[in-house]
Amino acid sequence: MKCYKCKQEIDSDSLYCDQCGEKIYICPDCHIPGKGEGKRCGKCGKPLVAAEPTPKAPVRLVCRAENITLDLMDGALIGRVEGPYAPKLGRLQFVSARHARLTREGDHWIIADVGSRNGTAVNGEWCFSPLPFKTGDVVRIANFYDFIAE
Ligand SMILES: [Zn+2]
Ligand SMILES: [Zn+2]
Fold first, then answer.
1. pLDDT 10s digits, 79-88
2. 81: CB partners within 8 A, 6+ apart
3. What is the pLDDT of residues 33-56, one digit of tens each?
4. 36 alpha carbon to ligand 2 midpoint, in Å?
5. Ligand 1: distance of its center to the CA of 16 in Å?
């Protein structure tokens, strides 16, 4: 996209123009930059809003009580015996040998329970079908271990 002020090409997720420093205002519907604060979208006429940072997808699950950090990997199995996290989870007795699977989807992740004995939950909701989680959410493994998505 282009900065309205200096007409330089800037990254589409910029909050400020990296050329002239102008704060970027965009149309909340069309997602195109407009002419600054208090102006309206040239296309649909909606009042512009300040550009917001795009939410970052979490990169790890952290269990503070057990001092365990799992780096999120697309397609990885969470398990006490199987999968890339087994060396870290091996001592967690309530986690199943094959417990849950992680999948990346844009700015969030999906966790699917793969028939574990003690279950999986996201923010207190049981994972009967795959559930999404994003930064700040609590993924509870085996109804005992709370992992924060960071
Ligand atoms: Zn500029
Ligand atoms: Zn618009």
1. 999 999 999 9
2. 90, 97, 98
3. 888 899 999 999 999 999 988 778
4. 13
5. 8
Instruction: Give the number of the ligand closest to the Cα of residue 16.
Output: 1
Fill in the DSSP letter of residue 81. Answer: S
Phi, psi of 86, rounded to the nearest 5 degrees: -55, -40
CA distance 95 to 142: 5
Distance from the alpha carbon of residue 32 to the mean position of ligand 2, in angstroms: 7
Among the bound ligands, the one closest to the CA of 45: 2
Cα separation, 105 vs 5, whole angstroms: 35
Q: What global pTM score does this model have? A: 0.69
Domains of the chain, earliest start first: 1-54 (no CATH), 60-149 (2.60.200.20)
